[in-house]
Design goal:
The complex is a heterodimer of chains A (378) and B (398). With 378 residues, chain A is α+β, with helices and mostly antiparallel strands. In chain A, the strands form three sheets. Chain A has a four-stranded mixed sheet with strand order 1-4-5-8, covered by helices on one side. In chain A, strands 2-3-7-6 form a four-stranded antiparallel sheet, with no helix packed on it. In chain A, strands 9-10 form a two-stranded antiparallel sheet. In chain A, a hairpin with a 2-residue loop joins strand 9 and strand 10. Helices cover 51% and strands 17% of the residues of chain A. The mean pLDDT of chain A is 97. Chain B has helices at residues 7-23, 26-34, 40-53, 71-83, 91-104, 107-118, 233-241, 251-267, 279-307, 316-337, 367-373, 384-395, and strands at 124-127, 143-147, 150-157, 168-174, 185-191, 197-202, 211-222, 226-227, 269-270, 273-274. Classes of the chains: A alpha+beta (378), B alpha+beta (398). At the A-B interface, strand 6, strand 9, helix 9 and helix 10 of A face strand 9, helix 10, helix 11 and helix 12 of B.
Chain lengths: 378, 398
Amino acid sequence: MDGGLTEEQNLLKDSVERFIERDYPFDTRRELAAGEEGFSHAVWARFAEFGWLAAPLPEAHGGLGGSPVEVAILMEAFGRGLVLEPYLSTVILGGGLLSLAGSDAQKAALLPAIAEGRLMLAFAYAEPQSRYNPSDVETRAEPRGDAYLLNGRKSVVFHAATADKLIVSARTAGEARDAAGIGLFLVDREAEGLTLRAYPTVDGLRAAELRLEDVRVDGGAAVGEAGGALPIIEQVLDRATIAVCAEAVGTMGVLLEATRAYLETRTQFGAPIGSFQVLQHRVVDMFMAYELSRALVYRAAAAAEDAADRAAAASAAKVQVGKAGRMIGQAAIQLHGGMGMTEEFAVGHHFKRLSMIGALFGDTDHHLRRFAALRRAS
Amino acid sequence: MELKLSEADAAFRHEVGAFVESKLPPEIRRKVELGLRLGKADYVTWQKILYEKGWSAPAWPKELGGTGWSPVQRYIFEEELALGATPPIIAFGLQMVGPVLIAFGSQAQKEHYLPRILASEDWWCQGYSEPGAGSDLAALKTRALRDGGNYIVNGAKTWTTYAQHADMMFCLVRTAETGKKQEGISFLLIDMKSPGVTVRPITTIDGGQEINEVFLDDVRVPAENLVGEEGKGWTIAKFLLGHERTGIAAVGRSKKQLRRVREIAARELSEGRPLIEQERFREKIAEVEVDLLALESVVLRVLSDEAAGRAPGPQASLLKIKGTEVQQAITELLFEAVGNYAHPYVAEALEAGWNEAPIGPDYAATIAPHYFNWRKASIYGGTNEIQKNIIAKMVLGF
């Protein structure tokens, strides 16, 4: 039982943790990561069966209407298993954008398909020059009668090559970094004029660079009001930020447990190395950073639906997790010595994922600046 | 704060810089600049170029092939090599087993091995760590049993850097089970082509293969390959720990890498402006730079003590700890600088000769693997925790 959770939430936590523990072992994960698509469709089908894909989607469209706390519970467990499946891209980003801004027709057609595991999405928002600013959009969407022509480049689009559809941010007006003038457009992965260059990432996921050359989408492909999408993008990126923070907490938990266990079994100088106080204190630092992160992330998840609080909550969580993640990841490697450096051992993979979450949706400095600016404005 | 050099030393710096500029093959320079993986040939080619010039072992006695330079000149030399994007010198031969043989080797060993080490004819590796003997190195179990004119060696070494390239290994082995565990250790030279030697590369989290397991099964090693007396291996290992202490700080390499941080931050954009214009990022660079200046100041004091004939204190551990902390801090800055382009991993992009267009900027591909890989620095050569134990005991007298 986790004190801060409801009975239903505890049941969800038990079931997802059990699945990760039993059905998502590290060796399977390694094989999947090395495979063609980088994840398992069979696992995805089970996520659908368990209702995890439906969890945060609206009840009116095949969802379960769960809150960001349910998402955090799932993501924390996914972090423990270093889950490769495109939950973040499809459900949290894609499903989130459609739920918030999609037309009734889009929601009716697409959200049940996500919930049932029949539709995968990817969100293309970053560009080569944009770093962590989602308004730094140079990709253009020019109206052509009832349709739009998209031109531009998108970078590091996670799970693009396996997505059925991409949601692309593009400017209908204004210049890079203007808040107004950004739209969202649904683009078929097979659309003419869209070129993907897919590649693995350093933590075993898949991503792609996108080039859009006169990609034609009809007016029905616009998600929400063309030109007014930035607030929606920010809201969904905040939710996604909190979700990956929860994933990071899961990963930190594994590193903490693995390190503690290693210090009990590894013997040097005739004693378990966990008997050395200097190493104990290092693990205590890991433990404290983990507890602080976990508490703040669940608090941020609870605040994620509150318009006034959401952005600061997401940035605060990301700063805490960014700092804690770096410290815990590095300490875990250090305390495992050479073992931690090897590809064969899970610890190094958790360290890598934690490092990359640090760079996802804005690094520590980015969110520190954002948090400070939000505080000054309030 | 710049290093104040005498006219002669300034001329020397210029001479070394010009030499590197003219002699380093451009393809090797490019690999080092971009942080691409270096092959055995890259290291050996460069070390042989230095050998031709008579510069492959500056710290050795002049009569054995050293240069006779002052400590400050040796420092300038190392810095110019680093700033010129040369491959790091592989220490095992030139800076480790070479000095050991000079100090402890038999006449026959010196005559046979030293010229070969000087000319980089053999690649050496270091057989120290074992699965059960890492920080507690003296717990090593690899046995060497005397059998007539040979030792029969059985055991396993691990984390052995570049064993896959090696012709020879200098190895700590156990020749006695009685008494203090340090006193049963001997220093043995093993030909890697001997029957019974098996090398298995270990893939690390950056995808690279630098380290290995080395299995020794009934390996026959001629008794004349024992260095010093039987049972004196620990003394030799301790000698090595303190030897050429200033190189371990890698100040020149860190200076070079800090330049790279600035170059990349000038090209990366944040809010439409170069990242280098962002105050917080500039200050983070400055913080590391001040650390590096302090580290260099200690190095220079050690060098001037050495020049004045004063035995330096046990500074090696300080230099190792702070040096690796600075190196690791720089890998973090590089990681932050490239933003989203830290994510892509194309294994081929880390090798020279990959002809496809890079994903993102050309400097980005190696950044995250380098950050991962460099976590090794606070582990190898005696973990930073062990180094602190040494300072606590040897310097502070606890």
